[in-house]
Structure formats: structure tokens, C-alpha cells
Amino acid sequence: MNKTPKHANPCVTLPIESKIEVDISEQKLYLFCRYEDGNEEVKIYPVSTSKYGIGSEAGSNKTPLGLHHIKNKIGDGAPQGMIFKARQSTKRVAEMNAVGAGDLVTTRIMWLKGLEPGQNSGRGIDSYRRYIYIHGTAEENKIGQPASHGCVRMYNSDVIDLFERVTEGTEVYIKK
Questions:
Q1: 33/16 Cα distance (integer angstroms)
Q2: Domain that holds residue 150
Q3: Which helix (H) or strand (E) holds 175?
Q4: Strands in the chain per DSSP E
Q5: CB–CB of 51/148 below 8 Å?
Q6: Residue 73 to residue 94: CA distance in whole angstroms
Q7: Averaged pLDDT of the chain
Q8: Domain count of the fold of the chain
Q9: pTM of the entire structure?
Q10: What is the pLDDT of residues 22-46, one digit of tens each?
Q11: CATH code assigned at 39
Q12: Which of 145, 159, 166, 174 is 20 to 30 A from 18 (CA-CA)?
């Protein structure tokens, strides 16, 4: 588990340790937290993984399996629904569930780095170079079913909550 430092937002009680598990078959993300007072918590968020299935190949648009960690957190303080292109704010807020909204990256980005050479790290299969994120989506009506192009999509309110509870370095395990 990742050690979590104190947070600037006093309204959020941060865990001292956290880890994430994404269960593709359930289309759920589990956040496991342990707090300074000894209490433990599991938060469960519905997600959407790839509509193309499981895989690590570059250009496949599939969701990779295995152990990752959050390499970069992007978008702290951005308004809910903010659209990001190439990890930069466009200064535009997405219209939720609009017809043709497509695979927009919204609200927050947690960019994943694969930690298993030959599975999700290395030439032609690297999750980081494939730009695999946990992020918000304009297609919230598709959460709970495979619909992404490889990333792990979340409701925008949920991705803000998760973003505030984890740090760069938090482990993320993606399983079938």
C-alpha cells in the first residue's frame, strides 16, 4: 500500500495507506484504505473499462491487466466536467451524456504506469506510453458497462473523490 501524506483539503480524511483494485468482470473499482486511528475502509466505485476487452498491445484500445501505480495526477482543482486533451485543460466543460460525446477525458486524470515487464511495461505493451488513465467521462450513462478505449472511466464526482484520497505511487491492480 502507498503511504499517503496530509492533504490540503481539511474536509477529506486521508488514509495513511491506500491501494486500488479494478475488477473488469464486475466493472468496479475498489479503494482499500487504512487510517491513522486503525480503522479500515473499502470504497466501491462503478467504472467502465474497454469495450474492446483485455490486452496490453499498443493501439489495441484494450484495458491492460496486472500491477500498476499512479505515476501522475493531473487536474487538481479543475471544475467537474473539464475536458482534457493531451493532459491539458481545454477550458471547456463537457455536456454530460450528449449524443456523440465520444471518449472525452474529463475532470481528473490518474495516469497509470505498468509495473510488470512483459505484461504492461516495455516495448509495445507499456501502459504509460499507451496513456492508460483512470479519469472522468462525459458518457456517465455508460458507467457499469465496457465502453472505454482502454482507460478506466468513472463518474466525475467519483473521480474527484478518488483523486483526493490517493497519491502518486498508489498501487493499482487490474484483474479480469
A1: 7
A2: 17-175
A3: strand 171-175
A4: 2-3, 17-23, 28-34, 40-48, 66-74, 82-85, 88-93, 105-114, 133-136, 152-154, 171-175
A5: yes
A6: 20
A7: 92
A8: 1
A9: 0.90
A10: 999 999 999 999 888 888 889 999 9
A11: 2.40.440.10
A12: 145
Cell 483512470 -> residue: 134
| C-alpha span between 151 and 84 (Å, rounded) | 14
- Which residue bears the cell 484500445? 61
Are 16 and 7 within 8 A, CB to CB?
no
Asked if 135 is an active-site residue, the reply is yes
Around 4, how many Cα atoms within 13 Å sit in the side-chain half-sphere? 26
Place of cell 493532459: 87
DSSP assignment string, 84-97: EETTEEEEEEPPTT
Which residue matches cell numbers 484495458? 63
Does 74 map to a domain?
Answer: yes
For residue 151, indicate whether it is catalytic: yes
Q: Is 103 helix (H, G, I), strand (E, B) or coil?
A: coil
- Within a domain: residue 155? yes
Identified catalytic residue from 33, 68, 69, 135? 135
Burial class (CB in 10 A: 0-12, 13-18, 19+), 172: buried
pLDDT tens digit sequence for 63-79: 999 999 999 999 999 99
Residue 165 has a CB neighbour count (10 Å cut-off) of 20
Q: Does any domain span residue 66?
A: yes
Question: Which residues are paired to 84 by β-bridges?
Answer: 89, 105
Query: Measuring CA to CA, which residue among 61, 48, 52, 54 is closest to residue 97?
Result: 48
Residue 36 belongs to a domain:
yes
